[in-house]
Amino acid sequence: MFKSKLPNLGTTIFTTMSALAAEHGALNLSQGFPNFAADPELLRLLGEYSTHGFNQYAPMTGVRELREQLSLKTKKLYGAHYDSETEVTISSGATEAIFAAIAATVSAGDEVIVFEPAYDSYLPAIDLCGGIPVYITLHYPDFQIDWDLVKSKISPKTKMIIVNTPHNPTGSVFSENDINELAKIVADRDIYLVGDEVYEHIIFDGLSHQSLCTNSALKEKSFICGSFGKTFHITGWKIGYCFAPKELSVEFRKIHQYLTFSTFTPAQYALAKYLENENNYLSIPSFYQRKRDVFLESIAGSRFEFIPSKGSFFQNVSYANITDANDAEYAIQLTKTIGVASIPTSVFYHQKLDQKVLRFCFAKDDETLQKAGEILSKL
Ligand SMILES: Cc1ncc(COP(=O)(O)O)c(C=O)c1O
């Protein structure tokens, strides 16, 4: 009999909930993807490059112009220098970058600190490398990290810490203090970091994104993974990237080279051109803050409780005032009975911690958000 290397993995909840939403004609606020179009200018650029012959393999490390634009942007926004030739790599979405970073670093028996709730791609990658996840549980409503607890979990076997800011599914973000505490913990230790920063431009209320690269000591140990899919409403293009110091990038590229080798060429040229206009990314925070507010206003009179999301395109709400049903059952019930799909946050915990909290994705057109809010307010 075939022996599975990941015996406990099945279909993701995102696939399940999206399928259920389609089956019941529900408004789909479950899976994290925008239901509106990307900027016509970006689409035009994609067409232009694909019709003008940019259709063969891109370089393994990514198209030079795109690496250069990313390097410039990161310098401008965070004051961090990455050499575009040796320290920036274009990947097939952030998912590939995260996998390659983990695979390049973690060996059998190494411990990896994972904060839960956690995005679902981290654990299978750790598992496949023979790594041992060491969980730190974050709790509703603010999901703050207790750095003393993190310190107590560090062992001689700790090889990696995975952090995600702005955070999926909670909408929390790192503060400068979080960055400083993390830097203290990894100082003088052989511990590396994955910074999952795919929502770097989706941050609200004037907060600034605290990238791991803002701290020079963290920068030296970090694989910072990003995603154009999230920033420019093109999740289907699957173009991401990884910033890492040269020594780490060399190892990262060894994995990337045989995982995908290279990534969709015309899109890389289109994105490089599009990034030349900084307004294209500087306008993203206010664009999504407005969407968050449309959703929050639409559920303001409901019995749900919430703290406004600080970043990402997700809003967590507690339904403890409405029912004591289990969150997975409740999410399914709402999809079937009132036609609004969400994600139960217990799925982001390995022990399926049920805090009576649902995650709604507000990367949707206003009409969908308002309609969903109207229905949810009747509960
Ligand atoms: C926290 C987080 N990291 C990584 C990804 C994956 O990004 P990509 O679609 O670029 O692979 C997602 C997508 O949902 C995400 O939410």
TrEMBL record:
Residues 1-21 form the signal peptide. It comes from the Bacteria. GO terms for cellular component: cytoplasm. Its cofactor is pyridoxal 5'-phosphate. Keywords: Aminotransferase, Pyridoxal phosphate, Signal, Transferase. CDD domains: AAT_like (cd00609). Residues 27-372 form the Aminotransferase class I/classII large domain. GO terms for molecular function: kynurenine-oxoglutarate transaminase activity; pyridoxal phosphate binding. The keyword Transport does not apply. Gene3D superfamilies: Aspartate Aminotransferase, domain 1 (3.90.1150.10), Type I PLP-dependent aspartate aminotransferase-like (Major domain) (3.40.640.10). Belongs to the class-I pyridoxal-phosphate-dependent aminotransferase family. PANTHER family: FI04487P. This is Aminotransferase class I/II-fold pyridoxal phosphate-dependent enzyme. It comes from Lacihabitans soyangensis.
